[in-house]
Design brief:
The complex is a heterodimer. By secondary structure, chain A is an all-alpha fold. Chain A contains 22 helices and six strands. Chain A has two domains: 265 residues, no CATH class; 301 residues, ABC transporter involved in vitamin B12 uptake, BtuC (Orthogonal Bundle). The radius of gyration of chain A is 27 Å and the shape is globular. The N and C termini of chain B lie far apart (53 Å). Classes of the chains: A mainly alpha, B mainly alpha. Chain B: Belongs to the binding-protein-dependent transport system permease family. LivHM subfamily. Chain B: It is a multi-pass membrane protein.
């Protein structure tokens, strides 16, 4: 092998700092293309895209948009507004406190992707592009033009990084690829926004209310999407649209405002969630709502264990199962061997206490050891719980859980004379069975959020974080590691048990097969962990968002079917590789994962 | 007839299989302090590799004496490819990341592997029958040996001897020991640690493949889920023997196998526990054994070779 002595030629990339677009269209033309494309996109959504109503959503009408066109319309409006803001139109400056260029790129990408997805879906489903009407061609052309125009907008290029002359061909290839990827990333990144002006408190609260109203609308729309294509379109536009607003700095400003009024925000968020059943006309989507809440609450409980204390619990769903079984055994169900019917508050205590006992039994021997043991022991416990529940059927073991048939016929709850099993009319709205449970579950969620916030900010919560970050250092600082970890584990277990008691009543039946390590229906241990990781460890919003997404995606996208778990497993691997901090990153965690890249700027920020 | 020798032999056989898989866990753990949760699935893909060779590559009616080595090679090729691929594309980029990251990656990987086999391997949605070695059972006094067990009886000690020779005598093996003791110093001494890590993964996969073929002969059928519980047990065996210690893995496996067999055979005789003796409780007893070991002797039977640096 010969050693290369001459300095390798760096590719003729523009030097750092020069403002130049990703593609070679002059920037003013690009800006005009993007903004004009936005306007024309809006126009195109009012035209017919296909001639037959065989494609769902009725895209055949001239004069008003329908189905996926509405989503494209929203995208087009966003592009137009951001485009105008990037020209410096003063009344729109609030929209883009961090500059509109990067946001414009994402907005045009959102519109482009949704439109082209629609058109490809129409062509594929109806058999060929002959099914498209001129409106579709117009939409396709203008969204592409807008996207290309936005790509031409200038941005700061990263400094080129020369090769190591000793690199092999493969290493060199990797190097150039990562270099190019850095450039693309820089093209889509934005500066931090200007600080929020101090507004009067009522104005802040008004903004929070507006943001929550938007969030509720988006969420309700997502739950209510009736066919696969619309849900995919919704995910595309919501995902890229949110990123666009994040890049424009608007989301950051709103989160700064919410940080000023935390209690108002939390209260408002619960109020918004409580309004959800009132937006529905029947119980169909309230069912989805209550399952999402159960899933999200358990994920939030897991987040205390995994996100705050850094203990990997792979059998968390078993604690949910312990709570559910405990509650069902004392619920007066005919298949329960105990002939008792506890009131709900007592059942809740029994469920939470049973989970607590198991949490301590599992935690005490393992938490003294390295964290990896906990992972495997909890994984084993999750499996053993299921096997045991299967065996305690009277033939292969004592009769307790009725084996694989589970405990069936769990009666509906009745609290203070309020029967959860029947419909109620509240102020002209009909509230069905699942909506009743939705409210109860929301209360449990509130309890878990409260526990999470209060304990997270307390002395013990800070001890958890310290242990997670560096156990040796934390021990040296006088933290009783074992005790603190056991508390985290036990608290997490009893919160799951709490959620389990409600779950037992919602589903009528408790069977061992509901509590798998990995199955197609959440909650199960793998999905719970994924919800926490996807959403963002150590945050409240993260697991809630992650759980909603992970519940809705399999629920809405029936075509994924058999490949759902496969896609899920791969997604987990890719997520850890490329965005380990999740969708809503905890600030401290984000630093931890991107140490070398972001540390200096952040130090500067905290200093300011 | 005295049942005990038969139960002991059964336990020994079961335990050797656990031990073969446990080596993969313990070796990877000893070198990179990573629990490769996907190892159970590597074992599973190995079994399907062997099945592929027998059913789809070899002509029908090939003699077992010819087919067996080829099946073993097929199993090893598949398992090693999967393991090395996982190391290269999933674990290596995460080196130096916080502890949780590779664990979560491993879970995702293990799910993806299971589902990939389920979705794409022909007729793998239910259990597939594994070829059997002809010949009746052998009787040695009170002990009956099935033909399928003979393979395990020969392969397990042989593999162990080969591994011991490799780790103790070869240059690469000593490089592995050095990396396990102190990766940074080993690197300074000219050990290519990246290569050593890949070799650890590959070696683990080779033994898992042997275990997988043994599993197929022993139970007569394989399915896409076989790696999950077996992986869990094998990890238990590795902890039992002292994780990071390759002899411990084998001994831990044997102890676990014998304990499990004896538990299913004799626990029902203990007054008050008569309902807990059936095969369906075997996993529960193995798990309770793990908890007891962690409680009483967390460093394992032989002790950990690698000190806890965290």
């Amino acid at each position: 092998m010969t050693t290369q002595t001459t300095a390798p030629k760096t590719p003729s990339a523009p030097t750092a700092g020069t403002a130049k677009g990703l593609i070679g269209i002059p920037a003013p033309l690009g800006r005009a293309l993007a903004t004009g494309g936005g306007v024309l996109t809006i126009v195109a959504t009012f035209l017919a895209w296909t001639w037959t109503s065989a494609f769902p959503g009725d895209l055949t009408v001239y004069g008003y948009p329908g189905g996926l066109q509405i989503l494209v319309l929203i995208g087009g409006a966003l592009v137009t507004l951001l485009g105008l803001a990037s020209y410096g139109v003063t009344p729109l400056a609030w929209l883009a406190p961090a500059g509109a260029d990067a946001a414009l790129k994402f907005a045009t990408l959102a519109t482009f992707a949704t439109t082209w997805y629609t058109i490809i879906a129409i062509s594929a489903q109806l058999g060929g592009v002959v099914n498209l009407e001129p409106g579709a061609y117009l939409a396709a052309a203008v969204t592409l033009a807008a996207f290309l125009g936005a790509l031409a907008l200038p941005f700061e290029r990263p400094a080129p990084d020369p090769f190591d002359p000793d690199d092999t061909g493969w290493e060199r290839f990797e190097h150039t690829t990562s270099q190019k990827w850095q450039t693309v990333k820089a093209a889509f990144s934005a500066d931090s926004p200007r600080p929020v002006r101090t507004l009067p408190a009522w104005a802040d609260i008004l903004i929070i209310v507006a943001a929550l109203a938007v969030a509720l609308t988006v969420f309700t729309y997502g739950i209510g999407t009736e066919y696969d294509e619309l849900f995919v379109g919704f995910l595309i536009i919501a995902g890229f649209g949110f990123t666009a607003l994040h890049r424009s700095g608007l989301i950051i400003q709103i989160s700064q405002i919410t940080a000023r009024h935390q209690s108002v925000t939390v209260f408002g968020a619960f109020l918004a969630a409580a309004l959800f059943p009132f937006t529905q006309t029947d119980d169909q989507y309230a069912t989805i709502g209550v399952y999402i809440l159960i899933f999200a609450t358990v994920a939030l409980g897991l987040n205390i264990v995994v996100g705050l204390a850094g203990l990997l619990d792979l059998g968390y769903v078993a604690f949910l199962g312990v709570g559910a079984y405990a509650a069902s055994l004392v619920s007066g169900s005919p298949s329960s061997p105990f002939d008792v019917h506890f009131p709900f508050w007592a059942a809740v205590l029994v469920g939470a206490a049973a989970s607590l006992v198991f949490g301590v039994l599992i935690g005490a021997p393992t938490l003294r050891l390295r964290g990896d043991y906990l992972a495997i022991v909890t994984l084993g416990f999750g499996e053993i719980f299921r096997i045991t529940a299967n065996n305690l059927d009277g033939t292969s073991g004592p009769d307790l859980t009725n084996g694989s048939n589970g405990i069936a016929g769990i009666p509906d709850l009745e609290i203070l004379g309020f029967d959860f099993g029947t419909q109620h009319d509240i102020a002209g709205f009909t509230i069905g069975r699942f909506a009743n449970y939705f409210f109860l579950m929301l209360l449990i969620t509130a309890v878990v959020v409260l526990v999470f916030r209060r304990s997270g900010d307390s002395r013990i919560g800070r001890a958890w974080v310290a242990i997670r970050e560096d156990e040796t250092a934390a021990l040296a600082m006088g933290i009783n590691g074992f005790r603190v970890k056991l508390i985290a584990f036990a608290v997490g277990a009893s919160l799951a048990g709490l959620a389990g008691t409600v779950q037992a009543h919602v589903t009528y039946t408790v069977t061992p097969e509901q509590y798998l390590f990995a199955g197609t229906t959440p909650p199960n241990s793998a999905f719970l962990l994924a919800a926490v990781v996807l959403g963002g460890m150590g945050t409240i919003g993260g697991p809630l968002l992650g759980a909603a997404l992970l519940f809705l995606i399999p629920n809405k996208l029936q075509f994924l079917g058999d490949y759902q778990l496969l896609a899920f497993g791969l997604a987990l691997v890719l997520l850890m590789r490329f965005r380990p901090e999740g969708l809503i990153p905890n600030r401290r965690r984000q630093l931890e994962f991107h140490e070398e890249a972001e540390a200096p700027t952040v130090l500067g920020k905290t200093g300011a | 007839m005295n049942e005990l020798p038969q139960q002991l032999v059964n336990g020994l056989l079961l335990g050797s299989m656990y031990g073969l898989v446990a080596i993969g866990y313990t070796m990877v753990y000893g070198i990179v302090q990573l629990i490769n949760f996907a190892h159970g699935e590597i074992f599973m893909t190995g079994a399907f590799g062997a099945l592929t060779v027998y059913v789809y590559i070899l002509p029908d009616g090939t003699s077992m004496f010819l087919a067996l080595p080829l099946m073993l090679i097929g199993a090893m090729i598949v398992a090693v490819t999967v393991a090395v691929g996982a190391e290269r594309f999933a674990y290596r980029p995460l080196r130096g990341a916080p502890r949780l990251a590779p664990l979560i990656t491993a879970i995702g990987l293990s799910l993806a592997l299971q589902q990939a086999v389920w979705a794409w391997y022909p007729e793998a949605k239910s259990a597939r029958t594994f070829p059997q070695i002809d010949g009746g059972p052998f009787h040695l006094g009170d002990v009956t040996l099935q033909t399928g067990d003979i393979f395990l009886f020969i392969a397990a000690p042989l593999s162990m001897a080969v591994l011991a020779y490799f780790v103790m005598k070869t240059r690469t093996g000593r490089g592995m020991q050095a990396t396990a003791q102190d990766p940074d110093t080993a690197k300074l001494m000219g050990v290519n640690t990246d290569r050593i890590i890949v070799i650890a993964f590959a070696l683990g996969a080779v033994f898992a493949a042997v275990g997988a073929v043994a599993y197929g002969f022993k139970y007569g059928q394989i399915d896409f889920r076989m790696g999950f519980i077996l992986g869990l047990k094998a990890f238990t065996a590795a902890v039992l023997g002292g994780i990071g210690n390759i002899y411990g893995a084998m001994i831990g496996g044997i102890v676990l196998g014998i304990a499990e067999t004896l538990a299913t055979a004799y626990i029902a005789d203990i007054p008050g526990l008569d309902q807990f003796g059936s095969q369906s409780w075997a996993d529960v007893w193995a798990f309770i054994l793990l908890i007891l070991v962690l409680l009483l002797r967390p460093q394992g039977l032989l002790g950990e070779r690698v000190a806890d640096r965290a």
